[in-house]
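User: Fold this; tokens only.

Assistant: Input:
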Amino acid sequence: MSVENLSIFSGNSNKPLAKKICDYIGVPLGEAEVTSFPNGESFVKINENIRGRDVFIIQSISPPSNHHFMELLIMIDAAKRASADRITAVIPFYAYARQDRKDQPRVPISAKLIANLIVAAGADRVVAVDLHAGQIQGFFDIPVDHLYAFSVMHEEISKKDLHNLVTMSTDLGGVKMADAYARSLKSGLGFVAKKRYSGTQVEATSVVGDVDGCDVLLVDDMTETGGSLYAAAKLIKERGANRIIAAVTHANLQDLAYERLSEGVLDELIVTDTIPVETRDLPIKVLSVASLLGETILRITSNRSVTDLFMIKGY
């Protein structure tokens, strides 16, 4: 497959992932300066000719989210002004995704604003992984390829000796994702009802589904403090579950999350490298989405379908 017209660049949010993607494709990571002035302003200079080329910019909007988002916008603008033929923003982690609707008076729909700014900067296409809400695809007036990390996690989960498996969502909103996992893994399905008191405090109130004597797979799209996972796992363990494994796509783990993981309520946490993750000698398994994103880039640049990449097996 010809990649002669392909150029890949990366901001500073996740260069290790960008390099893995380039290794999968077999092209070098593009030369670009992405730095900051002493006052915090971002500066970008693309150090190679990209006139008429198919350009892919890899950048997770991970903490510091605002800074990395500005890097993405400025890189898109730089590529546009350098006469790139097509610019695709590859966003493994899309921040502000939980602000996807007005659930209170006088609040913004920040996920839509982020989409507007990406389009206004000059992106022609977006690739994202496990958006928190599927409707975010509709916030863009350009094509969006929405990929699912389950295709990466399936092999790892299937290798485990799990018995009487039940797949559970940490809340009602994630049941659709859990259902997709359950269908593919041919497992039972359930969810945990919860009350959230703050960004760090969550109470699991009830379990919908039978977990007594079962191994349980908890699924979620993102975790930061581990509050939902911790509360759900504790209640599920009290209801008689055996092993409890969690599969989470985006793991922006804070110190509180590591403290909760160290208590051993979860037997293992499986995450991806959409955001750089430290394991800290805890039972955290990091899987790479590099092959998924690399294959997507190859198919886009050769104008082939990516449908079978973002279809979840069995769903």
